Automatic annotation (TrEMBL):
Gene3D superfamilies: 2,3-Dihydroxybiphenyl 1,2-Dioxygenase, domain 1 (3.10.180.10). SUPFAM superfamilies: Glyoxalase/Bleomycin resistance protein/Dihydroxybiphenyl dioxygenase. Pfam families: Glyoxalase. Residues 8-120 form the VOC domain. This is Glyoxalase/Bleomycin resistance protein/Dioxygenase superfamily protein. Keywords: Dioxygenase, Oxidoreductase. GO terms for molecular function: dioxygenase activity.
Length: 121
């Protein structure tokens, strides 16, 4: 084998501060509407289903998410509706450089993890 052959992304893991798992489960299920995956996996993380991909969160010490540009990008059907909804939940929205063929916005969760929402045009 001469190179790594990647088929797709299975999951992304992001960090939250120690002691905030219950609040995180509430945020991701109630505010963002992600489906919670019942515990039959590692006891130190929480898992959520997003279409055919997964988001995993894990409590960690000494994280500094609010200054990082790393992010998870999610494709949405209607970016304007998503923006309006997030703003109604008092979530700040930011924009970045224009990319032809895709409209996008960014937001951070309660722990500073950055998310991008993309509408392919």
């Amino acid at each position: 084998m001469s190179k790594l052959t990647v088929k797709t992304i299975d999951h992304v893991l992001i960090s939250i501060p120690i002691g905030s798992r219950a609040e995180a489960v509430n945020f991701y299920t109630k505010i963002l509407g992600f489906d919670y995956i019942a515990k039959d996996h590692t006891p130190t993380a929480e898992w959520f289903q997003l279409g055919d991909k997964q988001l995993h969160i894990r409590e960690e010490e000494n994280i500094n998410n609010s200054e990082s540009n790393r992010h998870l990008a999610l494709v949405v059907e209607n970016l304007e509706a998503a923006k309006t909804y997030l703003e109604s939940q008092k979530i700040d929205i930011s924009r970045s450089t224009k990319i032809e063929g895709r409209e996008r916005i960014f937001f951070r969760d309660l722990w500073g993890n950055r998310f991008e929402l993309v509408e392919i045009t």
